[in-house]
Specification:
This protein is α/β, with parallel strands linked by helices. It has helices at 11-23, 41-57, 71-80, 90-97, 106-121, 141-147, 152-155, 168-172, 177-184, 199-204, 246-251, 254-260, 268-280, 285-295, and strands at 32-36, 61-65, 85-89, 123-125, 135-140, 163-166, 190-193, 210-214, 225-228, 240-245.
Length: 299
């Protein structure tokens, strides 16, 4: 999972948090809703989709406050009133914000997050947008076809001969390498820690044989790559859900219907294509978001 999803406060993060808290004292224009996002392209895309749709469906002015580091900063910005809404992932909300144990059932995770966010924080978790951005164990498509495998269980006999390439976060998180290795009994021939930006290049150039990416990564839709199915469901669900302040909904009740129209409208395949347009082709986030909304009949 992307590092923005489980960001923990550091020296820089604490300074950013302090700026958010101080900034909360500044008045903002009336009839304004502030949409935030974490600090990676998918989040900026989701924030822009949310912002443009609110603008199209309501009379409200939308202020964008994107790239706010990770979950901790976005959560504190919500609580401080610096932003009104942003898109979170249920598994991150469960483990990084609520500090609850991992859970594999998506319905139970969503229900738990909705309940606890309401009771603890006066925040409403809106219906999921439609996709689950979880860890993805990826191999080359040619290898998947040659070996006839499409699940992690089927990959176990071959793992000892594979060179694995993983990001630092995947190696350190309890729901990452430790979880998948234990669940499947995976033992790779070698394991390298790679920068996230180099994972797919290393795989395509045959420097490694398997990597841990994210299920909505743009290159998965554009290259001959195969995601091995997590058939034992060891990775938690990470459904994308808009989170919004309850007092914002009370002040502008039209937001409930506007945001609700986005429920189940973005599939995993669609999110891959949107991510590739921005991260792979360098297209403008607002343009890509506008095209998505128009194509979905939501403009």
């Amino acid at each position: 999972m992307r590092s923005g999803r489980t960001w923990l406060p550091s020296g820089v993060g604490l300074l950013a948090l302090a700026a958010l808290v101080v900034g909360a004292c500044r008045p903002r224009p009336s009839e304004t809703v502030v949409v935030g996002s974490k600090n990676f392209p998918e989040q900026a895309l989701l924030g822009e989709i949310l912002a443009q749709h609110i603008e199209a469906r309501t009379h409200l002015h939308v202020e964008r406050r994107f790239y706010l580091a990770g979950s901790f900063i976005c959560q504190q910005a919500l609580l401080a009133g610096r932003i009104d809404t942003y898109v979170e992932y249920t598994g991150t909300a469960l483990t990084a914000i609520l500090h609850d144990p991992m859970e594999s059932d998506s319905a139970r995770v969503l229900a738990r997050v909705k309940q606890e966010y309401k009771q603890r924080f006066n925040l409403e978790v809106m219906p999921p947008l439609g996709f689950n951005n979880t860890f993805a164990m990826v191999i080359r498509g040619e290898d998947a076809r040659r070996l006839g495998i499409h699940t992690l269980s089927q990959a176990v006999p071959y793992a000892s001969g594979w060179r694995a390439g993983f990001g630092y976060e995947f190696m350190e998180r309890p729901d990452g390498y430790a979880s998948v290795a234990k669940a499947y009994g995976l033992n790779f021939g070698s394991t390298r820690v790679l920068d996230l930006g180099l994972l797919y290049r290393a795989l395509l150039e045959k420097q490694v044989d398997i990597v841990a990416g994210n299920s909505t990564d743009g290159l998965l839709a554009a290259r001959d790559l195969t995601v091995l199915e997590d058939d034992k469901h060891c990775f938690p669900p990470y459904q994308a859900v808009p989170v919004i302040r309850e007092d914002t909904l009370a002040r502008y009740p039209e937001l409930r219907e506007a945001i609700g129209e986005l429920a189940d409208r973005i599939s995993g395949a669609e999110m891959q294509k949107l991510n590739y347009a921005v991260a792979g082709q360098g297209r403008d986030v607002s343009e890509v978001a506008r095209e998505f909304l128009r194509g979905a009949g939501l403009d």
